[in-house]
Write a structure and sequence with these properties.
The protein has 4 helices and 13 strands. It is of the alpha+beta class. InterPro entries: DUF2993.
Length: 246
Amino acid sequence: MRALRILLIFIVILGGLFVIADRVAVNFAEGEAADRLKTTENLATTPDVSIKGFPFLTQVVGGSLDDIEVGIKNYEAAAGNGAQKIRIDDLRADMKGVEFSGDYSSATATSATGTATIAYDELLKTAKSEPTQVAPGVTANVVGLSDGGNGKIKVTVEATVLGTKLPEPVSVLSTVTVVDGDTVRVKADGLPDFAGVDLAENRVRAITDFQQKIDGLPGGIQLDKVQAAPGGVEITVKGSDVRLAG
């Protein structure tokens, strides 16, 4: 009985040491992965990287990690041309089946899903915020975007008719969708009423409708779905064969 007790104690100690070693190793790996991702994606700040699953060391031996979560704050994505950028406030991605090279210089996830949030003031940069003529004597411009409820965006437009600015801006609810995996499109469900002035629909939509291209998300992930929310436009992202590093 004494020998069995000693053996059990020894096994418990070994198990505890393995757990400690495993957690130390995963913390080190998370830090290294975060630094590598920061360099690869040219990020201004170090991202959050969390390696899921236990034990970590046996996954390393197998050359593949089950699940890695990545969080990036204030990510600046390309906005369709070389100069302009659009800020994504919170980009989070869950990477599945991450395989890495023997020297750990590169890593690729079989699939990835996640979320991102774009503030309304960022999306407003794409809309026509400068007064634009929509008919003789009538100019209009978008002055605000906000949550319209039920996944819709409320587009607020200011108009001037024959030199007189309307006392109150007009608004219209708009549907927001993802096009081609890289573009957020905002399209008015109806047309705003500019003090009863009869305007051609295409001229009004040149103001109310707009789209924002978002290029260069980390690892090649793409936009999937989008809807308006109180804090901004919430986007679902997805991807396959997503490159984390290398």
